[in-house]
Design brief:
By secondary structure, this protein is α/β, with parallel strands linked by helices. The chain has 17 helices and 12 strands.
């Protein structure tokens, strides 16, 4: 039992059982925060289910575990919520009876997790087949992380999905190799990356050479006859007007939506619309509020897991939505977005990459700036407010807000377009874009 300063006690096993409802949480140990004596703040060590990650080809375990933990935490009362956690890939220590050795977990959690380099580590990193990879990773490190052979690319070194693609693309260029998607999905550590690249090909560069990975990845796009992407070019003379009309009717009957800044939408040409993401309902609020001439050029890139049934696949096709897996197939997802933009379409992209857990504007990924920079199209910032209350992440639909006497409103603000200069840092541009959307969101009533 975890003793609280209030005198109450909490059974950690009950909380652990709640978090293990996630498919991707194999083991979890909940304890009082290691640096505190009481249980007023709960801490957890989470062991992801590696087999489940591999089955879904998920390499960014940290992002996924954070998403799962946030959603499950929201369902608990405040006194039972885990406030912080660490991720281990090794199994939790257990006693002779098979129970979690909680004192040992607490001891290890309180220790520094920084690993000291051994002589064997240094020799391995200095070997010709590993040194090129180590040099390239070191050149891209910006957070003072400690590099060692078994460092996790995401959790220890800070490479998110975008940075990981950039790193691997640069290494493929340098080593003269090309890794398959299946191989990509099996790489979690520096050692695994080195082993996957193996020996550099004859004639491969022997020096660190910084390249622009996305320039090469977005240069050669799929042909117009691509069986999936060709659907974005279909005219849909009946389906498109019917869907837009139906959405406008539903919006008028059920929802009270107010839109401002419509004059900022470009009258012609491709662009990227970047709203904050509050709910599944966000696209259904935005689409009926724009003129049909703009709506007919809309297209989306969505997570494939939501469009696996025949009905969902049909809807995705007529709604100009390309189902992809943004984690295991990030490059095809970016190429699909670039394909549509190169044909004058309007991409609706949610830069947060997931629905907000509390409705506020979260961190933006740099996909939109990368596309805007390389396709030379403007980004249109959009702020959405009031949709979270209708259908929050992890909660049910709030039908009470649809009552005629409810004063609830959904408000959408469209900001002035922004461009990303050639050579600009896309990470900084993403932060700047988020700040613009956040400022717009905060001033909405």
């Amino acid at each position: 039992m975890i003793a609280r300063s209030s005198g109450k006690s909490i059974d950690p096993e009950e909380i652990e059982a709640h978090y293990r409802r996630s498919t991707f949480v194999k083991e979890i140990c909940v304890m009082a925060m290691p640096d505190t004596a009481d249980g007023d703040h709960l801490f957890a060590i989470v062991v992801p289910d590696s087999s489940a990650l591999r089955a879904k080809k998920i390499v960014n375990a940290g992002d996924l575990i954070r998403f799962e933990m946030e959603g499950l935490t929201a369902a608990l009362t405040p006194d039972r919520r885990v406030a912080a956690y660490g991720i281990w890939f090794e199994p939790l220590p257990r006693d002779a009876s098979g129970a979690i050795a909680r004192d040992e977990v607490r001891r290890r959690a309180g220790e520094s997790r920084t690993r000291e380099l051994t002589e064997a580590d240094r020799a391995w990193m200095a070997a010709p087949h590993a040194s090129a990879v180590v040099e390239t990773i070191t050149a891209r490190l910006s957070n003072g992380a400690s590099l060692h052979p078994d460092a996790n690319l995401e959790l220890d070194l800070g490479f998110d999905s975008m940075a990981r693609v950039e790193l691997v693309t640069e290494l493929e260029h340098r080593c003269g190799a090309k890794l398959s998607p299946d191989t990509h999905a099996e790489i979690f550590t520096v050692r695994q990356l080195v082993n996957a690249l193996a020996e550099p090909a004859p004639g491969a560069s022997s020096r660190v050479e910084r390249i622009r990975p996305w320039e090469s990845l977005l240069r050669d796009l799929p042909p117009d006859t691509d069986p999936v992407l060709s659907g974005l070019l279909a005219k849909r003379p009946i389906a498109a007007p019917l869907m837009h009309f139906t959405a406008r009717v539903i919006r008028a009957l059920l929802f009270r939506v107010e839109l401002s800044g419509l004059e900022h939408l470009p009258k012609s040409g491709a662009c990227i619309i970047t709203p904050n993401h509050q709910s599944y309902l966000d696209p259904f609020m935005l689409c009926p509020m724009v003129p049909f001439g703009v709506y007919r050029k809309f297209f989306f890139v969505g997570a494939v897991e939501y469009f696996e049934t025949p009905l969902a696949k049909w809807f995705a096709r007529i709604a100009n939505l390309v189902p992809v897996d943004p984690d295991s197939n990030l490059v095809p997802a970016m190429q699909a977005a670039a394909f549509g933009l190169s044909h004058g379409k309007v991409l609706v992209l949610f830069p947060e990459g997931e629905r907000s857990i509390d409705g506020s504007v979260k961190k933006f990924k740099k996909g939109a700036p990368i596309l805007a920079q390389h396709l030379r199209v403007p980004i249109v910032p959009v702020a959405i407010k009031g949709v979270y209350e209708l259908w929050p992440r992890g909660g049910g639909f709030n039908w009470r807000l649809l009552r005629p006497w409810s004063r609830h409103r959904v408000r959408i603000a469209i900001g002035e377009p922004m461009t990303i200069a050639d050579g600009a840092d896309c990470g900084e541009s993403a932060a700047g874009l988020r700040e613009r959307v956040k400022c717009m969101w905060e001033v909405l009533p």
